Task: inverse folding
C-alpha cells in the first residue's frame, strides 16, 4: 500500500496566523453545550426505543429549543438518529462502547464469553458478566436461551451493587473506600428481601470473602436467585460472573461450584493477557 506525504510549504507563501485561543466565556459556553448534550444522551434508558424532543428536554432539564439544536448536532455526528419526530440512540455510540477496554478484542468480555457460554450450557440458567461502576453493577454480557427466566438485566444496563450477586461478589474484595461509597449513597430496596441495613451488608460481604461466592436470594427481583464469583487480579476484583435462575428450581450448591471454577479460569486467563500487553 502506498503512502502519501504532505508537500513542503513554500517559504514565499505567508504562514497562516494561529487562531486566537477561546475566551473564558467561549470555553464556558462550549462546556455547557457539551454537558447538556451528555444530559440528552443520558435521558435515554434501556426501556426507551425513541423519545420526542419535549420529553428529552424535560428529562435533561433544558429548554426545548436548546434540546432541538443540540440533537441536530448529535444527529449529524451519528450519536442519535431521527425516527419521524422522535430520536433514538445512534450506531456511533455502539461503536464507541465496543472500544471500551473490557469490550475490545482480547479484552475481558472476549475472554469471559466462552466460559459464560459453558455455564449456560451446563446450568441452563442465565449467565452474566458485570463490572463495578461506582455504586452500581454495569452488565457487559448476558447469555440466555429461549425459555430463560426473566431477569431485570440487559447488556449495558446497571443495577444497585448491593442488590445483586455480581455486586456483592465484587464489593467483598474491594477496598474499604469503594464499599464506603455504596453505603454512603444509601442501600436501595428493590424487593422486600433486599439488604437495606449497612451492618447486614457488611456481614454478608464478610461471608462472601470467606466463601469466594455471593448469593442473591430474590434481592433484585422476586422469584430470582443467583450465585456469583469475582474475577480477581492482584487480589482485587476487575469484574464478576453469575448464573441466575428461578428460585424454585435453582440448585445453589451445584451452580456455585461451576461459577467458582469459571471465575478462577477467567481470572487466570485475563491475568495472562495483561502480562502479555
Result:
Amino acid at each position: 500500500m502506498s503512502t502519501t506525504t504532505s508537500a513542503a510549504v513554500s517559504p514565499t507563501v505567508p504562514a497562516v496566523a494561529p487562531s486566537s485561543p477561546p475566551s473564558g466565556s467561549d470555553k464556558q459556553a462550549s462546556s455547557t453545550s457539551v454537558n447538556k448534550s451528555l444530559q440528552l444522551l443520558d435521558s435515554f434508558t434501556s426501556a426507551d426505543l425513541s423519545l420526542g424532543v419535549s420529553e428529552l428536554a424535560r428529562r435533561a432539564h433544558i429548554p426545548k429549543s436548546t434540546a432541538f439544536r443540540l440533537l441536530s448536532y448529535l444527529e449529524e455526528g451519528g450519536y442519535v438518529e431521527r425516527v419521524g419526530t422522535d430520536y433514538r440512540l445512534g450506531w456511533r455510540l455502539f461503536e464507541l462502547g465496543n472500544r471500551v477496554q473490557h469490550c475490545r478484542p482480547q479484552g475481558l468480555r472476549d475472554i469471559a464469553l466462552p466460559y459464560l457460554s459453558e455455564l449456560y450450557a451446563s446450568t441452563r440458567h442465565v449467565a452474566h458478566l458485570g463490572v463495578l461502576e461506582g455504586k452500581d453493577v454495569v452488565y457487559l454480557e448476558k447469555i440466555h436461551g429461549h425459555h430463560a427466566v426473566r431477569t431485570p438485566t440487559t447488556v449495558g444496563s446497571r443495577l444497585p451493587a448491593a442488590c445483586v450477586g455480581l455486586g456483592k461478589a465484587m464489593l467483598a474484595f474491594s477496598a474499604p473506600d469503594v464499599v464506603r461509597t455504596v453505603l454512603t449513597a444509601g442501600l436501595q430496596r428493590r424487593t422486600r428481601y433486599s439488604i437495606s441495613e449497612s451492618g447486614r451488608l457488611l456481614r454478608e460481604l464478610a461471608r462472601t470473602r470467606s466463601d469466594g461466592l455471593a448469593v442473591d436470594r430474590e434481592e433484585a427481583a422476586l422469584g430470582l436467585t443467583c450465585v456469583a464469583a469475582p474475577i480477581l487480579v492482584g487480589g482485587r476484583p476487575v469484574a464478576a460472573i453469575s448464573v441466575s435462575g428461578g428460585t424454585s428450581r435453582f440448585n445453589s450448591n451445584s451452580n456455585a461450584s461451576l461459577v467458582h471454577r469459571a471465575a478462577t479460569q477467567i481470572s487466570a486467563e485475563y491475568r495472562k493477557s495483561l502480562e502479555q500487553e
Notes: Residues 1-19 have pLDDT under 50 and may be disordered. Residues 28-93 form a domain with the Arc Repressor Mutant, subunit A fold (CATH 1.10.10.10).
